[in-house]
Amino acid sequence: MELQAVVDEIVHEVQPMLGEGAVASYIPSLGQVPAGNFGMCVAMSDGPVCGAGQWQDPFSIQSISKVFSLALVMSYDYDSIWKRVFREPSGTPFNSMLQLEADNGIPRNPFINAGALVVTDRLLTLTGDAAGSVRGLLRKESGNPAIDFDDEVAASEAQHGHRNYAMAHLLASYGNLENPVELVLENYFKQCSLRMSCEDLAAASRFLARHGVSAGGTPFLSPNQSKRINAVMLTCGTYDAAGEFAYRVGLPGKSGVGGGIVAIVPGRCAVTVWGPALGPNGNSVAGIAALDAFTTRTGWSIF
Ligand code: DON
């Protein structure tokens, strides 16, 4: 199988779908990205990389950053985070607060916004600079020192972030934040605003395809921790569409409202796609179609 040809074909195939769905506009800065953009990259765990379309154009990684903040927290503090956040699929949208009160301030999982706020809070305690730590990890693992925050996107989200503010205050009311609400949100909006290309993101995610081994060849996570993060990505990484994603793609995956998705084939590669038009659950329509075609063609699903 010629992997570059597979990726080229898939990017060609999804072109007619690029208008389907809608670009996220609840963060006004994100709403300006053209819906017709699309890129895809595969980074093999042993080094080779191939890509097609706009795979080298940076975009806002948004909720994909939640994978890296969780990985950092687990790298410092093996599993104490699980006292403050569950690891069950929520079956609700990424920004829902419905279950948070019923569950006494313990979010259902670390990838819905409420859970990610708790993880960012923990990382802030552990490092003093949660967003900076996420940026540092991404720079190191991707080998791209130019990866940075998009201050306009972060400010735009802060201005329109009523729901995240409400969620953070509710968490604080249950004693499930260690740091001031403002500081946690500032770090959360910054980590979400990081701009990366499919190429950067595939390279940076490769440690999850290498059982925790970092780009430098040393263990960043243990194989067990890497397995656990992949498991949570599979069950919770695409919110109330996690069942549909597992059915169609059959891989651990994490999406963001910037239109990016990272999927991991453990032991083999990291795959990234980017198409800004989203379906009703906040996941890239063309991105899911491309990943579906990828696992169908290659047979590289975990099932
Ligand atoms: O908190 C938010 O609403 C955004 N910064 C991130 C949301 C997101 O990417 C959800 N993913 N599909």
Automatic annotation (TrEMBL):
Q: Which GO terms describe its molecular function?
A: glutaminase activity
- Gene from which the chain derives: glsA
Report the sequence similarity comment from the record: Belongs to the glutaminase family.
Task: Give the record's GO biological process terms.
Answer: glutamate biosynthetic process; L-glutamine catabolic process
EC number(s) stated in the UniProt entry for this protein: 3.5.1.2
Catalytic activity reported:
L-glutamine + H2O = L-glutamate + NH4(+)
Q: What is this protein called?
A: Glutaminase
Q: Name one Pfam family in it.
A: Glutaminase
Where, by residue number, does substrate bind? Answer: S63, N113, E157, N164, Y188, Y239, V257
Instruction: Tell me which domain of life the UniProt entry assigns to the organism this sequence originates from.
Output: Bacteria
- Please name the InterPro entries in this protein's record: Beta-lactam/transpept-like (IPR012338), Glutaminase (IPR015868)
Q: Which residues form a coiled coil?
A: none
Per its UniProt record, what NCBIfam families does this chain match? Gln_ase, PRK00971.1-1, PRK00971.1-2
On assembly, the entry states: Homotetramer.
Keywords of this entry: Acetylation, Hydrolase
